[in-house]
Amino acid sequence: MDKPTLNGEMLTLRPIRASDAEAVWEAVTDDEGRRLTGTTRAFTRGEIDTWCATVADLPDRVDLAITLADPTDDEYLGEIVLTDIDEVVRSANLRLAMRPGYRGRGYGTEAIQLVLGLAFDGLGLHRVGLDVLSINTRAQALYENLGFRVEGRRRDAYRDGERWCDGIDMGLLEDEFRAGQLD
């Protein structure tokens, strides 16, 4: 599958490339980002370098760097990913991660809207799912505002320091996406 470039008002989403490795490294070593996404695995810099250089070639997924729409500024602000794309079931999972300095600016909202357009209009999917940690109430509110519905809760599925927190499963169906486009 060719990896697309998507253009919005504020953002351009483009395939991740080797030159993004330094910014990706910053994101995967950010303590607060790791906490809010439940990331427990420690990556090496070599793994990140290899990942950025090769992820665009992997099947069944679309990994896109979030950058500003300004063609003179191609800085990696974060990433948005459709994983586990199943063409038979017509479903995928969504993941969003922003670098520390770019959270809370509306970039995630536009990135998700662009990727949902790709998922439902470009890839012909029926369902996009995700999970969000119960401690990440801002992200859960964002997903709900975009039409995702809570589908379940996995109790004590993640660690938050010495405490446990729940994983909240959410999903958006094609007809719900289309109805949201009419609002």
UniProtKB/TrEMBL annotation:
<dbReference type="InterPro" id="IPR000182">
    <property type="entry name" value="GNAT_dom"/>
</dbReference>
<dbReference type="InterPro" id="IPR016181">
    <property type="entry name" value="Acyl_CoA_acyltransferase"/>
</dbReference>
<feature type="domain" description="N-acetyltransferase">
    <location>
        <begin position="11"/>
        <end position="175"/>
    </location>
</feature>
<dbReference type="GO" id="GO:0016747">
    <property type="term" value="F:acyltransferase activity, transferring groups other than amino-acyl groups"/>
</dbReference>
<dbReference type="Pfam" id="PF13302">
    <property type="entry name" value="Acetyltransf_3"/>
</dbReference>
<protein>
    <submittedName>
        <fullName>GCN5-related N-acetyltransferase</fullName>
    </submittedName>
</protein>
<keyword id="KW-0808">Transferase</keyword>
